[in-house]
Amino acid sequence: MTRTAASGRAVVVGAALAGLRGAEALRRAGFAGSLTIVGAEPHPPYDRPPLSKHVLTGEVPAEATRLPSLVDLDATWRLGTAATGLDRHRRTLRLADGAELPYDRLLVATGTRARPWPNPHEGRLGGVYSIRDRDDAASLRAAFAARPRRVLIIGGGFIGCEVASACRSLDIPVTLVEPSATPLARVLGTHLGAVVRALHEARGVDLRCNAEVEWLEDDGAGHVSRARLAGGGSIEADVVVVALGAVRNTDWLAGSGLSADPGGLDCDGTGHALDEAGEPDTNIAAAGDVARFPHPLYDGRRVALEHWGNAVEQAEHAGRLLAGCPSEAPYGALPTFWSTQGGINIKSVGLTDGADGLVIAQGSPKEGRFLALYGRQGRCIAAVSIDCARWLPAYAAMIAERAPFPPIRRGTDQPAGLDILPPGLPEKPQR
């Protein structure tokens, strides 16, 4: 489709990191038409990573997380008004306040929301929190400042572990319940998960792995008092943090004819949204957590990435695409991620899904400073460093080059033997 980059009406749905950077990319690529940015939250774009770390400990106020704008956007902002529907035939976007916005180019960057506690009544009890947006973080910070007797965290993923770390930094008693054998088992596997478990236990976190919360108990006055565990037993807590992952914000696309579900909005390799027949709508692109796309580095397997770096790079790609300046190659930036827990920096490149082997390629877990490399079918696919990030760029290059696994032996700072270990990752269905 040929279009003039300098004209028309562009609408960005989603006023977070991907939406902001996508709008900036549109302008940088020469788009000079009208630009409207729609956001469900009332706040201008802000940075989410500090919410589960520095905001909870009080080091950074929630309102101080605003993202800088890198370009003069000359945009109309519609904040505090969610998108509720999309009519692709009329090229209009419906908003919660009843307004309709026409578009010629549409960037979908609606991100995710926290997965709620499955029992709505229990989820509405006083003292029950999730953490995804700025208001969530401010509310939970206030709860921590009130010095609860005990915090219970349900879910041992990155958010759950970061909140547990914040609790211990504040000297608040905390229990974390995780159904897998270790924290982060679904992302790192049980081998590295055991290292994370030891880290948190050494800081005083009460970890209950291989355990599940069955229901939350009301104290009779509408406030949570304890959690009942499946199989018996209970944990008393006056603050409960539900950290069960995220659901992608695609509900508003129902009836639009686009291929979307709670796992994301499907895109082709260029970044255009796909309809239910698998055909691209060249007026629509997607970026950030909501975009599910075929990653060329992983044999075209469809992935949706909840990574800060991906939101920035994919938004740049999508903005240029909608402005009429597409990239020559399909989008396939190497996924990167980081987390800070208990003063330890965990950084990763690549995707561990489907790994059939792991080696400790640098450093030593006994020293608390090492890098683990994951392989699949004889190829390097991911690397995770724990306080050993200096080596990460070299292994990122190996992953991007589809280098053989295991890596070359006898390198600097490598263990004497590179034993191939089972990573302990759960089986995942492949799309």
Automatic annotation (TrEMBL):
Region named Disordered:
406-431
- Which InterPro entries does this chain map to? FAD-oxidoreductase/Apoptosis, FAD/NAD-bd_sf, FAD/NAD-binding_dom, FAD/NAD-linked_Rdtase_dimer_sf, Reductase_C
Pfam families noted in UniProt: Pyr_redox_2 (PF07992), Reductase_C (PF14759)
One cellular component term (GO) for this entry is: cytoplasm
Q: Which UniProt keywords apply?
A: FAD, Flavoprotein, Oxidoreductase
* Annotated ranges, domain FAD/NAD(P)-binding: 10-315
Q: Name one GO molecular function term.
A: oxidoreductase activity, acting on NAD(P)H
**Cofactor section:** FAD
Q: Where is the Reductase C-terminal domain?
A: 337-407
Q: What is this protein called?
A: Ferredoxin reductase
Native organism: Methylobacterium oxalidis
